[in-house]
Write a structure and sequence with these properties.
The complex is a heterodimer of chains A (88) and B (90). In chain A, 0% of the residues lie in helices and 40% in strands. Chain A is mainly beta. Chain A has a single domain, classed as EutN/Ccml (OB fold (Dihydrolipoamide Acetyltransferase, E2P)), CATH 2.40.50.220. Chain A has a 5-stranded mixed beta barrel. Chain A is globular. The relative contact order of chain A is 0.29. The longest helix of chain B is centred in the last third of the chain and has 8 residues. Chain B is built from 1 helix and 5 strands. With 90 residues, chain B is mainly β. The chains are: A mainly beta (88), B mainly beta (90). Strand 6 of chain A pairs antiparallel with strand 1 of chain B.
Chain lengths: 88, 90
């Protein structure tokens, strides 16, 4: 899993079956000092509560779809938690 | 598997239910000689590792799901061991 910052939302009316009701957010991946690293990704919101500017952690690849209500869906990045703090 | 150093704990109240009650560790990945690679992972702890320790990290989803015992868990990285020593060569 990696840290990320929510920087935007994606609205798509026409979606593949199984993705109805799934919210998509644009997430900028961060390094461990919480600085931007790499290109932003579109991630499904697996916690249904993430919003703009929030620090989150995301999971990629096959495991992303496991965060969805229907786990056999074409999702390759998902937000699986909202970060309160990173404690040393 | 990968070797890393635990550098912090990720605190999260709102998360996928499988993370409830589980500790998330922020781990810098390191070379076998201890040099940071510049990459990191957030991994679920199942061995009781803490900050400063060198750990063995599994980064593969199917194995991770077996370890947490839930075949729908959106988990990929798990801290599965605490490293005592790494010896290279003789």
């Amino acid at each position: 899993m990696q840290l990320g910052r929510v920087i935007g939302t994606v609205v798509a009316t026409v979606k593949t079956p199984g993705l109805e009701g799934v919210k998509f957010l644009i997430v900028q991946p961060l390094d461990r000092h919480q600085e931007p690293k790499g290109r932003p990704v579109v991630a499904a919101d697996g916690v249904h509560m993430a919003g703009p500017d929030e620090l989150v952690y995301i999971v990629g690849s096959r495991e992303a779809a496991q965060a969805m209500p229907n786990t056999f869906v074409p999702v390759d990045h998902a937000i699986v938690g909202i970060v309160d703090e990173v404690a040393p | 598997m990968k070797v890393g150093t635990v550098v912090g704990t990720v605190v999260s109240t709102i998360s996928s239910p499988v993370f409830d009650g589980r500790k998330l560790l922020l781990c810098d990945l390191i070379d076998p000689d201890g040099t940071p690679e510049g990459e990191y992972l957030i991994a679920v702890d199942v061995v009781g590792a803490g900050v400063g320790e060198t750990v063995l990290i599994l980064d593969e989803g199917n194995s991770a799901r077996q370890i947490v015992g839930l075949d729908t868990a959106p988990i990929r990285a798990v801290v599965v061991g605490i490293v005592d020593e790494i010896a290279i060569g003789d």
